[in-house]
Amino acid sequence: MSDTELPLPSTKFIPLFQPTEAPTLVTGEAAGFDDNRRIVYPKTQMPVPPHLIKTPGHLRTRYYVYYGGRGGAKSYQFATAAILRAMEKKTQILCCREIQSSMADSVHRLLASRIKDLGLSKHFEVLSNTIRCTLTGSEFSFRGLRHNLAEIKSFQGADICWVEEATDVSEESWDTLIPTIREDDSEMWVGFNTGMIDDPTYQQFVLKADDDMTVVEVSYLDNPLVSKVLIKEAEKMRLNNYEKYRHIWGGEPRRAAEGGVFLSDKVNIIMAAPASLVECRGWDFAGTAVDPKHPDKDPDWTVGARMGRTSEGRFVVTHMTRMRGQPHEVEQALVTTAKNDGFGVEQSIPQDPGQAGKHQVRYFVSKLAGLRVHSSPESGDKVTRAEPFASQVNAGNVDFVYGAWNDAALKELEGFPNGAHDDIVDSLSRAFTRLLEPQEMQMMKVVGL
After folding, report:
1. Which domain, by its residues, includes 124?
2. In the chain, what's the furthest Cα-to-Cα distance?
3. Bridge partners of 124?
4. Contact between residue 194 and residue 253 where contact means Cβ atoms under 8 Å apart
5. Residues 183 and 294 in one domain
6. Residue 269, helix vs strand vs coil
7. Does any domain span residue 398?
8. CATH, residue 397
9. CA dist 54 to 2, 15, 57, 60, 188, Å?
């Protein structure tokens, strides 16, 4: 199939089809690349002056990252490229997304549709859970990441890994998937509509892109095949809400989730806590320290948020402990903080499911002998647990006492539930829920009745 027959809406996608295209000179000669990705004369390795370069070609990279706004035909072109690459030679193609509850959630249907539209049905066997090319023996597999990490680790032989809707992929999933795709000359295709600036995918593949990544920003403006309906909708939003247009259609990342759970600007910063507060400190534990060998990683935090309730019904966050460390360091932070709080502040700690969680709670309670300690398992998802506290925040009924932790807390509230972390929200939600319980019920639970 010649280049002119490729159904490409934009030349930006050519690297997917021709990942080893060489640069050429105005004389017709082929040029090459050096280790710094400069175009050079093959024999002398001297850089070629720009006016002598006819086509810049493309230096092969491991990652092909396409991101941006809606309507850029990213999925359409990934599917087309994957089909054509599968027909060139035997290729194992793994198609992933963060959550895939059924084949209906995968790109299986898109691939089947493109095979039919390209008139290639006689060369492919489309089965319920896989697709095979009868000419070359190429095969497409489909996997969800979040609930199948153990299976992903054992997946071998993928030549191309296409990650669809990659903005939803967690850091843990990337850490598992990337070492799994280990064949010589293997490629990872990453496609997504831009979400939050703190999303692990955007951080790793856009803000921290390296020389082994081909990173291309696309939007509906790069797609001459875009429908008139989409153009009309984009233009309408551009005129009525330009900021939203820049994100949805232009692909600019958001710093805070629009319509998120928390309206952080409703939080009041006060210089001192009022007297006579009933206080509780809610905890969220993480036993992970920063690894000096991997300074780019962003592990979770252990957070202890102390919150009080006034007689008028306002909620005041008076203090916050926030740290990263190994399990023994987390334990020491809990004990030190609780003792500094004293008997007047109850410590509410989460109980992980299973017997190990029960043992951990018993151990922590023994370490806090003489203090008031409450424990309970978490129930429901994080957003559901956070919503009651969010209602108070959004009504302007929550104060933060001025402190060094304010900025981190406000930033996390802004991004929740799509931000990089939710440890602060979890600890605040726990303290808030505990404060809502009648004092008599709290005392009954403390003494075990």
Report:
1. 3-17+61-230
2. 89
3. 133
4. yes
5. no
6. strand
7. yes
8. 3.30.420.240
9. 20, 17, 9, 19, 29
Task: Give every CB contact of residue 284 below 8 A, 6+ residues apart in sequence.
Answer: 301, 302, 303, 304, 350, 423, 424, 426, 427, 430
Instruction: State how far Cα 85 lies from the chain centre.
Output: 28
Over residues 356-387, the pLDDT tens digits come to 678 888 999 999 999 999 999 887 788 888 99
pLDDT for 29-52, tens place per residue? 888 888 777 888 988 889 999 899
Angle of CA points 422, 416, 197, to nearest 5°: 100
413: left (phi over 0), alpha (psi -120 to 50) or beta: alpha
pLDDT band at 444 (very low <50, low <70, confident <90, very high): very low
- 48 and 176 share one domain: no
Which of the four pLDDT bands, split at 50, 70 and 90, describes residue 418?
A: confident
Instruction: Tell me, yes or no, whether 217 and 339 share the same domain.
Output: no
Q: pLDDT tens across 7-35, in order?
A: 555 778 888 887 777 888 998 888 888 87
**Tens-digit pLDDT profile for residues 229-266:** 999 999 999 888 887 888 899 998 876 555 468 888 88
Q: Are residues 36 and 150 in the same domain?
A: no
What distance in Å separates the CA atoms of residue 368 and residue 370, rounded to the nearest whole number?
Answer: 6
Residues 106 and 224 placed together within one structural domain of the fold: yes
Q: Please give the pLDDT value at position 199.
A: 87
Q: Which residues contact 185 (CB under 8 A, 6 or more apart)?
A: 60, 159
The answer to whether 160 and 91 are in contact (CB under 8 A) is yes
CATH of the domain at 119: 3.40.50.300
Residue 312's CB is within 10 A of a number of other CB atoms, namely: 7
pTM comes to 0.56
Beta-carbon contacts of 173 under 8 Å, excluding residues fewer than 6 positions away, are 98, 145, 146, 149
Round to whole Å and give the CA distance between 204 and 175. 11
Residue 442 scores a pLDDT above 50: no
- The answer to whether 86 touches 134, Cβ cutoff 8 Å, is no
Structure tokens at 366: 């023994």
Question: Locate tokens 């690459």: which residue?
Answer: 85
- Tell me, yes or no, whether 40 and 69 share the same domain: no
Closest CA to 284 of 333, 219, 215: 333
Residues of the chain above pLDDT 90, percent? 56
Identify the residue whose tokens are 């859970």: 129
What is the total residue count of the chain? 449
Same domain membership, residue 339 and residue 207: no
- Residue 373 and residue 327 share a domain: yes
